[in-house]
């Protein structure tokens, strides 16, 4: 991809690539997938962060007792440093709880 094409990318794609670069600073390689106004950063099994360009979301590892649905963590997309730190915290939690899960995509 040439430089001028990067600037035409959807805000979600730009945000996902920023998060991916921050994760790489910590030794985690995530795969970025983009399209239809959303972008995903696949880190490992049970850890995929997605964004619409304004926020990052990923499964917190918790399930609501009231609804029995997964609960999600959130960070504004304009703060990829904090998002990466929080995603890394979840990654480390997965490595402790289920080492096989963290050996997926970018482990």
Describe the 3D structure.
The chain is an alpha+beta fold and 107 residues long. The chain has one domain. It contains three helices and five strands. A five-stranded antiparallel sheet has the order 1-2-3-4-5, covered by helices on one side. Strand 2 and strand 3 form a beta hairpin. Helix 2 (11-24) packs across helix 3 (80-97). The longest helix has 18 residues, at 80-97. The mean pLDDT is 90.
Summarize the model shown.
By secondary structure, this protein is of the alpha+beta class. It is 34% helix and 31% strand. It is built from three helices and five strands, in the order H-H-E-E-E-E-E-H.
Order of helices and strands: HHEEEEEH
Number of helices: 3
Low-confidence stretches: none
Shape annotation: globular
Backbone CA Rg: 14 Å
Q: Termini distance?
A: 26 Å
Write the layout of secondary structure elements.
Layout: H1 3-6, H2 11-24, E1 31-35, E2 38-44, E3 47-51, E4 55-63, E5 70-76, H3 80-97
Helix pairs in contact: 2-3
What descriptive keywords fit this protein?
five-stranded antiparallel sheet
